[in-house]
Design brief:
Elements lengths: L9 H8 L9 H8 L1 H10 L7 E5 H6 L1 H11 L4 E5 L9 E3 L5 H8 L5 E6 L3 E9 L9 E2 L3 E5 L6 H6 L4 E4 L6 H17 L5 E9 L5 E7 L9 H8 L4 H20 L9
Length: 270
């Protein structure tokens, strides 16, 4: 399950009401991670570097198009990426290279969400890290070796992900030195913790080709999970095979459910 009503805390809330164990993040982390603006704010508060952005709500854009366009040009410059705040799979994402293209890109993005993220485009490599909650309660989450997405298109579009079988190459492990690997893993772990994630998540990073700095892009609480998807492939390269990974996730889900069921749900005065 991906996207709104599946990955954004709604189905997780339904499962909570039904008192059923489920794999992955809870209601709060699912909702926050789905909203790119809120996720970036929480990551930034944790001291994680993020790409400069301007958030826009549809009603504000409708009333203040010129002011908003000027703000984007002043704070970000061009090119920029326009993204629906609560969506995935690069749906509604467009690269805007000059001001004349901004209005059309925003109108398209607002078809999918009432809130849009306009983000500075950088010359960067796309690095991904799989994160897994530790079965030892309170212990740091586990992180995989980093992988890299090398798109054949101008950026990692919906078409590159799903329609073009040669749309991107997955490099596992990513070609990073030991310091770069450690920094990517530390950032992924910090973001997972900052958003109070549980179970699993794939953390997507940008590696600036000029400065060598990592920047947090987004966190995917229900990553692709076929045997050839990036999340399980990264764990396979890190020593946890597909069957073992599924077992760990089920164990984590049952353990969380048991802890929650032990909570007191009624209050009686002494």
């Amino acid at each position: 399950m991906h996207g709104p009503l599946c990955e954004d805390g709604t189905i997780q809330g339904l499962l909570e009401l039904a008192d059923l164990p489920y794999i992955g993040c809870g209601v709060l982390a699912s909702a926050v991670a789905m909203d790119k603006v809120m996720a970036k704010r929480l990551a930034r508060d944790k001291g994680v570097l993020i790409v400069p952005y301007v958030p826009l709500k549809h009603e504000v854009w409708e009333k203040e198009k010129e002011q908003s366009a000027r703000r984007i040009e002043k704070e970000l410059g061009y090119p920029v990426f326009v993204k629906p705040a609560n969506l995935g799979s690069s749906v509604g994402v467009e690269k805007v290279k000059e001001p004349s293209e901004l209005d059309a890109a925003l109108e398209d993005a607002f078809r999918y969400d009432r809130k849009v993220l306009v983000e500075a485009a950088m010359n960067a490599r796309e690095i991904e890290v799989s994160v897994l909650e530790n079965l030892k309660t309170g212990a740091d989450p586990l992180v995989s070796v980093p992988g890299e997405i090398v798109p054949a298109h101008e950026f990692y579009t919906y078409e590159a992900k799903y329609l073009d079988e040669k749309g991107a190459a997955l490099i596992i492990p990513a070609k990073l030195d030991s310091d770069g690997t450690k920094r990517a893993q530390t950032m992924a772990r910090n973001v997972f913790t900052a958003l109070e994630c549980e179970g699993m998540a794939r953390v997507d990073l940008f590696l600036d080709r000029t400065s060598g700095e990592f920047f947090f892009n987004e966190l995917n609480t229900i990553p692709g999970f076929t045997s050839i998807s990036m999340y399980p492939k990264l764990w396979e390269a890190s020593g946890i095979n597909y069957e073992e990974l599924l077992t760990k996730l089920v164990d984590l889900a049952i353990s969380r459910h048991e802890r929650k069921r032990a909570l007191v749900r009624e209050f009686h005065r002494a």
